[in-house]
Design goal:
7-stranded antiparallel sheet, globular, 507 residues, 17 helices, alpha+beta, 2 domains, ClpP/crotonase-like_dom_sf, Pdz3 Domain, 2-enoyl-CoA Hydratase, Chain A, domain 1
Amino acid sequence: MKNVLILLLFLSQGISAQLLKKDSLQTYNKTLTPGEMKADLQTFLSIRKGANSGLYRYRTTQQIDSIYKWAFKEVKKPMTTLEFFHLILQLTDFEGSCHNYTEPGEELVAYLNRQQAFFPYALKYIEGKMIFNTVGAAIPVGSEILRINDVPAQQLMQSFYKYCTTDGFNITQKQSNSVDRSYGIRYLYEYGVSDSFKIAYQAPGTTLTQMITVPAITNDQRNDMFNKRFSAPVDSITDWRVQASYSFKMLNPNTGLFNFRIFNMADDDKDPRFPGYVKYIDSVFQLLANNNVPNLIIDLRGNPGGSDPNFEQPVMYLTDSNFKENAVAYSIIGKDIPYEQCFWGISTSHKMDSVEKVEGKKFLLDYFPALINGKNMQHPKYNPVYHPKSPGYKGKLYMLVDENVASAGSHMASLVKSYARNVTVVGVETTGGYYYHNGHMAMVYELPHSKIKSKFSIVHVEQDALVKPDQPEGRGIIPDYTVWPTFADFLQNRDTQMEFVLKLINK
């Protein structure tokens, strides 16, 4: 009996060890052979050339060839999946599209998300620095973070740039998001799993470097902590997850504020929600006209995009000109999906089934009916002319933008800057482009060996944006007044950009 118990004990320990090994990072972050990576790279490049109409928008053929030549050289030795993932991120970032998104296979992501390995504090990008943003911790709010686990702050920020894709060449979102949004799972992607974090910092008003080591926390604990961060009261003002999609209020008898946090108020003009939205827009401009309101602020900050024709509706009250959504829009695919064997769907979270693929192809064929000379032009019915509406707003218009304005949000901003009467733009250059973007329709592909998923939009869009001397190619909407949040306002939870606009109005 004693021997049986000993045997059972050894068996249970062996099973436990086997289960522990099965749930180790090495199990999911498997080592890829040079052959596997070369095959995935070749597939990845072929997919981009066959489906991505934006591949050569900001890069020449020689530049794309050069970076892939570098990538193929890099995979001559075995790599872990995450190391290969870092390489793919650099390729997708190089293209210059804010709609590009890449993530590792779902099992690896799930493994990382269930680890007690997350950074336990919120940080904030302020005046080019990593600023401590958590209340009640041993580190004072407003402290400058100098190093984490011996990696200097500037090196940390630069390492996360490749995760923050942007239209063209601007880096504003890369700068802020490399701090604000990179200490969740991105940190684990980049630096692996840690039990603790050694942090070097300087408290506000001092030059003394202090050190502290703190334990890692779970993802749920991090989410709870992040929601309670010191800057949440100001951050929430422009957060589409917190605020209504659109809202209006009079700040005072002379100034109205129209917020557009996200353009998801209707899927299209056939959506039963759309007429109510249009009626609301009209009622606001009726109110502005009836009361002769001299100042109107349109706040687009934090707007990640959404659907048309939502974003065109307010523009019609701001202009004397006809305009279109697109000057030109096309894809480079025909009736069949290139490399369909690797096609995943339109979202990384859901794999399309055969029925959904059939319906998707029907929609694509209706939207892009014929591939001619390498371009499949958008059907004209999807690009109508918009005309000025009455009562048009004749007062002084101020548009607030920031580095997180993208897609339909930046598209509206480009139309406003192009066509609106008497407009002043305040804030930070948008991540979405002024002249061009790749958008409208997303496709997700999964690489066969690494299981990395890459999402990109297939429609090359030349926006109906007027050429302006302060708008170079490959840039977002550039403000007339560039205004970043200041450190003094951060400590007081004040909205630097809104207060700047109100001061302009008062002057």
